[in-house]
Every structure is written in C-alpha cells, then in structure tokens.
Design a protein that fits this description.
556 residues; Rossmann fold; 7-stranded parallel beta sheet; 6-stranded parallel beta sheet; 18% strand
C-alpha cells in the first residue's frame, strides 16, 4: 500500500510555546532550521490555530477555519415569520437573522446576537426586531448603547427605515443637552416605542445609570458589543447589570472574537449567563490551558468545537462572502464631534469668510480655497491666513479612525485608508504603524517616489503581513489595484467626484470576490457633511457649491 506523502512547513515561535507545539499531531523539532516542522493536515492546522501568538501559515489556515466561526444557511426565498415593520426591502440574510432572533424571543425572554460583518446591515435588522416586539406588545422602551461615532447613524436610520411610531432621543453632550433629551423622552409624546440612545462612555456616569434605571428598558441593544469583551471594565459591568434587568437583549458585532476566544465570556454574560460558566475563571479553565511563569499565561485553547456550538445556540453569523445578495458597493458613515476649541475655530472661520466673501463678488477659486481650510480643520489642522505652518486643533477624527481600524484589524481584514491632505496622511501612517506593527503598512502619497508605487502595491496585494495601505486620493488614480482589501476608509474627501470615484475603484475591480464597503469619517455639523452629500449625488463639489457658498459658510 502506497502512503500519501505529507508535506511539512516550518513554524518558528517563542520558546514558551514549545510544549503546545510538541502537542500538535505529527510535529517535530528541526534543530538545523531552529523551527518546528508541522504537517500540512487538518488536525495539525486545527491544533496550531489553538495556540495564541503563533502564526498560522496560509497553507494551514486554508485547512482549518477559525474555531469560533459560525455559519448559517441563507435561503434566498426565505420569508419573514412575521411582517418586518421597515420601509425597505431586506436582504435574504437579514430575513434569516430576523427569523432566528424573533423565533428565539417568542419562545422565551433573553438574549440573541447578530454576528454580522461590517456592511451586512445589522442596524436594519435590529430596527425591524424592535418594531415587531413593540407591535406584539412585548416592549415599550428600548435602550441602544453604541459607540459615539454611531449615535447619529441610529437617529438617521430609524427615521429612514422604521415604519412604526417611535420617539428617539440621544442622551449625550453637555449636561443641559442630556437633561433636555431625557425630559423629551420621558415626558414628551410617546408613540408605540420610546428609544433611548447612549454611548458606551456614558455607562460610566452615575447620572446616566440613574436615568437608565428610571427608564427601565424592556430591551437593551449593544451595538458593536465587542466593546464589553473586557469583563472587568466599568462599562462591561454596567452593561451586565442593565441587561440583567431587561426582558430582551440584542448584541450586534462583526468581531465577537478579537484577540482570544475568551472574549466571548463577557458578551455572553450580557446575553445569557446560563450559556457559559458564570465565573470567568471557570470559563477560562475549561477553554484554555494555562502555564508559563506563575501559571498566568495561556498556552493553548481547548474544547473550541463545544465553545462554538454553545455560542451558536443564541447567535446568527453572516459574512459578506455569504451574503451574496448584498450590493457590490456599500457606503457607511461614522461621525465624530470636534472638540470645543476646534469647533470654535471652525465657527469663527465660517463667520470671517462669510463677511470676507460678501464684500465683493466671490470667485470660484476663492470659495474653494476657503472650503479647503474648513476641511483641514475637520481633519485636525488650522492654517493661518496667507499660508504658513499648520497648527493642530483637533484629534477627534484621528480617534475615530483608531477605533475603526482596531475593529477591522481584529476581524482579520486588510484595509485601505484614503485622505486628502499631507498632514493628515502623516498622522494616519503613524497610527497604522502603531496598530499594525513594523512592516504592516504601505503608502502612496507626496512623500513617496512614484517609482516605488509598484512595489508598495505588490506588497499589499501579496504579503499577508501587510494589512494597511494609506493613499492620497489624488495619487491613487487609475491603474492601481488594491483588491486584496474589500474595505476602504475615507478620512477626508477630495472635491472632485472623478477623483472620489477613481479612489473607490481601487478595491472594486475585476478579481474582487466580496462586496466592497466604503466607510466615510465625518465631523458632524461641518463641511464634511456637505461634501459627502454632493459626492453621493455624483456632483463636482466646486461646481455645486460655488453658486450656493453661503450654505457652506453659514455658521449656526
């Protein structure tokens, strides 16, 4: 009998991983290469994936899917088990998720999770579920906890898609603004459903926790629920307490597992403490093997099939690759708020430029120049009249980029970041190198010689260690292919629709096998919103706004 030859791959890892690597089926130490030789088999691949901190070669990664990966069959002809109260036609995966969650809620009270990748429409499904539970008489008050950048998205999406009466207020901002929102929500006209929206940092406020307790939500929704994965954090403990008092709980995230399968425990304590061990340390002892100095280091994971099965009992997982009915291009907007000093500088410039332009006949170049200066402020910088050095005035958008990149990198994605101004790009590059590590980032912008463009693109396209690409919009023109990524972030925007469309086309090209997601970072209440609206309407900004410049420079 002829036995099939088994190929081996060298795996280099720190000395502390020796015991875990020795336990991989078929592995052996090669003193000449000073590496572990691991057989290219499914068993070895699965075992190697359970060792934290050890890189998994692509040949082995293809043999063993992530241990916590969940897949759900999506039927294109599946019908909602009850009418979805939304003003939009849902995609098949949204119907499947709605049916799974609603079936769970109708069977018993408790929690359910939508583990849907970014761009798969988790918010729409959540809006439909809230409405159906309200129409069924099961809930009257809902609390939504979301990252600061997503708060305006909930307000906009509820207005666009909810086909049932509701009252929504965002409890955020100054003490006066929060008090007014709370008063409007609790004493104003109701409707079928009252919705309180708050950000995660708000859970650290004793005043907000008092408000939430008085509101007594029947349903609690955690948007980007991986924010509570650290069970010892103050906001996680608050979420657990709030969830325990609610009849229904819903957790939304595309990345339930970031650094470790143990990330699931805190999220499931919110959803249903009965799914896993009630103690984190009992949970860790069951699913992880500890060792190292003092026994505080995770050597490897175990029982991950069981972990997946239990987690899947109250969750619905969808990837963009599975959601075949998604549009080819998905646009998303995330918001930040300029710091008070930056906003004052922005408003002052608005007022100054209105007076200056109104003195005489405003020309197109004058208007565009002043618009650019406003755009620079939203990106973090202020330039004095007549040019000169830039002064940093804001880090709000950079903080939003950090948060967004952390989530995408945790999901294992490659990402392209577009920006317009050089000062922004320098900041973005520094952030990418911090998050991704040395060798993780390539770029195309004014400081990079054009002859180096080809190698930068090649590295991003072929090297799995190069996960981030930073490009100046004007430089990343036609002919550059970056479809190793299916997500692009626009930190700032060019005023030319042609340049904007060309930038989008860098990842949406022949060979792209997944829907492309474009995330736009917008400073709320600024020129960013005007520019994005014009680009969405396929307008050239300069031409659109020249005749309506007062709209842009009109300070509230």
């Amino acid at each position: 009998m002829i036995q099939k030859k088994i190929d081996y791959l060298p795996v280099q890892a720190a000395y502390k991983h020796r015991e875990a690597l020795r336990a991989v089926p078929g592995s052996r130490w090669d003193p000449f290469q000073r590496a572990w030789l691991v057989p290219v088999t499914k068993g070895a691949a699965a075992a190697l994936r359970c060792i934290p901190g050890v890189p998994l070669p692509p040949e082995l990664a293809a043999l063993a899917p992530p241990p916590t990966e969940m897949t759900d069959a999506i039927s294109g002809d599946e019908a909602p088990v009850a009418p979805m109260p939304i003003k939009a036609k849902p995609y098949a995966h949204q119907v499947a998720a709605y049916n799974a969650a609603l079936g769970h809620y109708r069977a018993w009270q408790g929690g359910f999770a939508l583990f849907h990748e970014q761009g798969c429409g988790k918010t729409l499904t959540a809006i439909a579920l809230m409405g159906r539970l309200a129409l069924d008489g099961r809930i009257q008050r809902a609390l939504v906890v979301a990252p600061l950048a997503v708060l305006p998205v909930w307000e906009k999406d509820m207005a666009a898609y909810a086909s049932y009466p509701y009252a929504l207020r965002i409890v955020h901002g100054t003490a006066k603004a929060k008090a007014k929102a709370w008063l409007d929500l609790t004493e104003g006209p109701g409707g079928l459903l009252k919705v309180m929206v708050i950000n995660y940092d708000g859970l650290r406020s004793a005043e907000n926790m008092t408000r939430i307790a008085a509101f007594a939500p029947d349903m609690v929704i955690l948007d980007e629920g991986q924010r509570i994965k650290n069970h010892q954090s103050r906001q996680a403990k608050a979420a657990h307490a709030i969830g325990a008092a609610a009849r229904y709980r819903l957790l939304l995230t595309g990345t339930p597992v970031g650094n470790s399968p143990l990330d699931l425990w805190s999220q499931y304590k919110f959803l249903d403490p009965a799914i896993f061990e009630r103690s984190f340390y009992a949970f860790r002892a069951h699913y992880a093997v500890m060792g190292g100095y003092g026994g505080y280091e995770i050597i490897r994971y175990q029982h991950l099939d069981e972990l997946t099965e239990k987690a899947h009992a109250i969750a619905h997982r969808v990837t963009k690759a599975q959601a075949l009915d998604l549009p080819e291009r998905i646009d998303q907007t995330l918001y930040c708020q300029l710091e008070p000093a930056a906003l004052r500088a922005y408003r002052q410039m608005q007022r100054d430029k209105v007076a200056e332009l109104a003195e005489g006949k405003a020309t197109a170049p004058q208007i565009v120049t002043q618009m650019m200066r406003l755009s620079q402020i939203t990106g973090g910088f202020l330039q004095a009249d007549g040019g000169g050095a830039l002064t940093r005035v804001s880090r709000a958008k950079l903080a939003l980029l950090r948060e967004t990149l952390e989530d995408l990198l945790a999901a294992g994605e490659k990402v392209v970041v577009f920006a317009r101004f050089r000062a922004e790009i320098a900041d973005i590059l520094a952030l990418c190198l911090e998050l991704g590590g040395p060798g993780s980032t390539r770029s195309i912008w004014g400081e990079v010689p054009s002859k180096a463009y080809g190698q930068a693109v090649e590295d991003f396209q072929t090297d799995p260690q190069v996960r981030l690409f930073v490009a100046q919009i004007q430089a990343a023109g036609a002919g550059i292919t970056l479809h190793a990524a299916h997500t692009a972030i626009f930190y700032s925007l060019d005023y030319s629709y042609l340049n904007y469309d060309q930038a989008k086309a860098r990842i949406h090209r022949i060979g792209q096998r997944q829907p492309c997601t474009y995330i736009h970072l917008v400073a709320q209440g600024t020129i960013d919103e005007e520019v994005l609206a014009a680009l969405a309407a396929k307008k050239n900004i300069a031409e659109d706004i020249v005749d309506n410049w007062r709209r842009v420079f009109a300070a509230p």
